[in-house]
Amino acid sequence: MKNVVAITVTFYPDILVLEKQLECLVGQVKSVVIVDNGSMLDAAMLSRISSLGPIIKIIELGENRGIAAAQNVGIDWAKSQRADFVVLFDHDSQPASDMVIQLLSAHDMMAADGYRVAAVGPRYIDVRQDNPPPFIRIEGLKLVRCWSHRNNDIVKVDYLISSGCLIPMEAINAVGMMKEDLFIDYVDIEWGLRAKNCGYQSFGAFGAHMQHSLGDDPIKFLGKSIPQHSPLRHYYLVRNAVWLYSQPWPPINWKVVDAWRLLLRFGFYSLFAKPRLGHLNMMTLGLWHGLRGHMGPLPRIH
């Protein structure tokens, strides 16, 4: 059996939702490490988590160090356990009972075909939005949305959302850890593109399934559900995207397509996300900080 360690990053989790996730994971992986980002989990919650089994390890950071730093703490612990793979989770994601098995199978198939596999991710359902979202990649100046109803289909992607993402430890050793000064947003995108630049390929596996909530309640617009985040999250989204565009290694065509999408988001959220001025101000600040290379957590004074 392959040594797979699940890494769940928590930030003020709903204990019932987290318990459901852990109960599902206990039968799929060798161990689970929960890295808590400053929630100060109370004794009752810690007891309930620990009662789910001895394979669960809890690491409390004591402060919110961001998603990338928390993932890196989990990855370091997985390395100490001689893990072959890690699989990353947000605290509210719900994997199917065979999700990890499906991801491992997809990894093995792509590795047998000669690919150096960066990561394999599941198809996810967000019950509040149009489902299921497609896997995406950029070809030339076109954003390709990859759809399939066949569970055995596996597609190449530029990157994957971090939750549900299975990563071989060999790829992490070659590509490097998550970039901590991004703090949150574009962490998964940056790592996926960095892996691709190192000769590794990410894949979406249609046979692997997960429920996942992307952002806050979506905005209804022209019959579609558009994901949205808080003004603070939009700060990080804009800042980290702009910083990534300044790096020499992402492909030029990827930068052009993603920058156009970012411009559309900037306009849309400035007009339709409430409070409008709050979103506009934070995205503008993110643009300025991204251009200046001002990274890390946003100081409280803002």
Descriptive report:
Helix content is 39%, strand content 25%. With 302 residues, the protein is α/β, with parallel strands linked by helices. The protein has 2 domains: 4-211, Spore Coat Polysaccharide Biosynthesis Protein SpsA, Chain A (Alpha-Beta Complex); 216-292, no CATH class. The strands form 4 sheets. The protein has a 5-stranded mixed β-sheet, sandwiched between helices. Strands 5, 6, 9 and 11 form a 4-stranded mixed β-sheet that branches. A two-stranded antiparallel ribbon has the order 7-8. Helix 7 (231-245) packs parallel to helix 9. It is globular, with a radius of gyration of 19 Å.
Q: Report the span from N to C terminus.
A: 49 Å
CATH topology of the largest domain: Spore Coat Polysaccharide Biosynthesis Protein SpsA, Chain A
Q: Please state the overall shape, judged from the principal axes of the Cα atoms.
A: globular
Helix content: 25-40%
- Low-pLDDT residue intervals, each spanning 5 or more residues: none
CATH class designation of the largest domain: Alpha Beta
